[in-house]
Amino acid sequence: MRMQRNYNMENAKKMGDYEFRLKEGKRFSVRTVQSKMRYVNEFDIFLNGIDFRAVDNKIAANYREHVRTFEKNGNRLLLKTINNKLLSVIQFFIWLKKEDGYKIKIKESILDYFELSNTEKKTILTKRNLQKFPPLDHILELIGSIKGDREVDLRDPALISLLTLTGIRDGALINLQIKDLDIREMIITVDPETGGTPKGGIVNYIIIPEFDKVLVEHFLKWVNYLTSELNFSPQDPIFPKTDNKISPGSNLIPVGNVTNEFWKSTGSISMMLKKRFKAAGLKYYSPHTLRSSSYQILRKLASKPEEIAAIWQNMGHINSRVSELHYGILPINERKMNLDNIVDGANSNDLSLDEKIELLRKELKKDFNLGIQEILKRLPKDKGGDDKEEK
């Protein structure tokens, strides 16, 4: 006989408040909110009427072990799925601990008891890193194979280049307008109001890390072509759909020009990539794996924790526990500074010894001048009028 569930009305109220926070405060998508709330509700069912304020280290540890027993279609859950369930509960308690009436009752230490062991988390990370994604030279080979003077032969390398440089989501990519790009600062604005659909439904700023000159040149060349040759307006797409008109007497071969219309779905990007990879004789990789390539390339170049946080946040992972709790949401200028430092550090490895010495000399001179300016600021200023008093 199935046991009757005991409800706690205070728990239900706080879960309702949290759901509202996710929807209206964090502006998460409906699907994301439903997923997070489902995992929190599973924990409430486990409590069977126990108030959230009464949850202690023992209860947290017991729930962690309880989740391990979950099954789907007769099979135990993957470690990654178990971790996602526990992480949703952890995020809920991080929010709950800041609420009136819960601050004192909930101990900070219970978060540790919800977590998997370090060994298990390393296993998840290792499996994630083992996922197939194309290295940079593979991507450059693909771009180099695209020949021709058709407009799509300019657009496609530019799209692949931006996807690799930034790791931008394909949903945002197909909705980018020319006005969303700040060429001077190399920053893209992804705005949900213009169809950019960034994760979480909030405006996001994506810095374009210039870690490869070939990729940057392809992208900027295309943007220049759109504005100077096609006279595209600021509201027109950066990556417009293909004009499917057939060339006269060309045996049904499309002209290969573009319209000023937006692609209707991300499937168009996947189809384009499949076609380009096949023509180049290379293994196909999806848009999401190119996003992974972007992360892996930058991650290998990063040397400081704040640089890693900048990478995560630039790719839209603003709710990563490590990134948000330890470094906060980095301001756009600070994120850009860290990403520029990553690229500058990588470029310095290609310099000769004399060039590195000259670069170091300039940096030292810059620091020295800044130090002098700071000293001058602190010196008492001449108020004037002293000469008059002497007279």
Helix-strand string = HHHEEHHHHHHEEEHEEHHHHHHH
Helical content (DSSP H or I, runs of 4+):
55-70%
CATH superfamily of the largest domain: Intergrase catalytic core
Whole-angstrom Rg = 27 Å
Q: At the first level of CATH, what is the class of the largest domain?
A: Mainly Alpha
Question: Any idea how many domains?
Answer: 2
Mind describing the biggest β-sheet?
3 strands, antiparallel
CATH topology of the largest domain: the name is: hpI Integrase, Chain A
Low-confidence segments, given as residue ranges, are 318-327, 383-391
Number of DSSP helical runs: 17
Envelope shape = elongated
CATH architecture of the largest domain: Orthogonal Bundle
The secondary structure category is: mainly alpha
Report the strand count.
7
Question: How would you write the strand order of the largest sheet?
Answer: 3-4-5
Report how far apart the termini are.
105 Å
Beta-strand content: 5-15%
Round the mean pLDDT to the nearest integer and report it: 81
Q: Could you give the topology of this structure?
A:
Layout: H1 9-25, H2 30-47, H3 57-68, E1 71-72, E2 75-76, H4 79-96, H5 110-114, H6 118-129, H7 136-144, H8 152-166, H9 170-173, E3 181-182, E4 187-190, E5 204-207, H10 213-228, E6 240-242, E7 258-262, H11 267-280, H12 287-301, H13 305-314, H14 321-327, H15 332-348, H16 353-378, H17 386-390
Antiparallel strand pairs: 1-2, 3-4, 4-5, 6-7
Helix pairs in contact: 1-2, 2-4, 7-8, 8-10, 8-12, 13-14, 13-15
